[in-house]
Write the structure tokens for this entry.
Amino acid sequence: MKIGDQIWMTENLKTTRFNNGDTIKTTTPSTRDIEPEISPKYQWAYNGDEKNVAIYGRLYTWFIVADQRNVCPAGWHVPTDEEWTTLTEYLTKTGNGFGDGYQNMDIAKSLSSKSGWFPDETPGSPGKDHLSNNSSGFNAIPSGCRLEDGNFHRLGYYANWWTSTEGGTAFMQILTGEVVKVPGGLLRVIYNDYSYVNCYVNNKKYGISVRCLKQIK
């Protein structure tokens, strides 16, 4: 889908290979704890169920995103945080906000798919009035994530994507609130009950969705 001057894939990445053909491994079982590993490079279907891939794509560690072999097809790449900002600023400036939010930045509905979201009554959220979602055509699917301890988390509640940008010198664990003093990866998140697109630094060992951007010459 062409959005502004950018061309985005309208599905989450599903590949099990790098661009050069090398296999991207998964874990056995799918719930194996990878916290002790230094730079794990894995992909998973949500809950280890391959039937989920067709709709939600696969979940990848940030180390896959950063690999020079490129997880995206030829001519495509994992976008930087700056390229994500180009997308969100374009939608904000072209009137894709819900209408009542701060500086028209409440653009979550314009990016979100018309189905799959857990219902919510917050105005401007993807979970409210699904059929009015996706005016941009981006088709954000609430694919959840995989934590480093092997737990799969929040399918239907949020969509999240790695950027190729490394961020910060520490991050806070989602469930424990513990601050981990190592660099994390930047990701973008849309919640079912919130009208804005969020940006966080998170654990590089998490399994997160990837959305590819076309390289424009």
In short: The CA atoms of residues 95 and 104 lie 7 Å apart. The chain has one domain: 2-82+137-214. The radius of gyration is 16 Å. Residues 81-93 form the longest helix (13 residues).
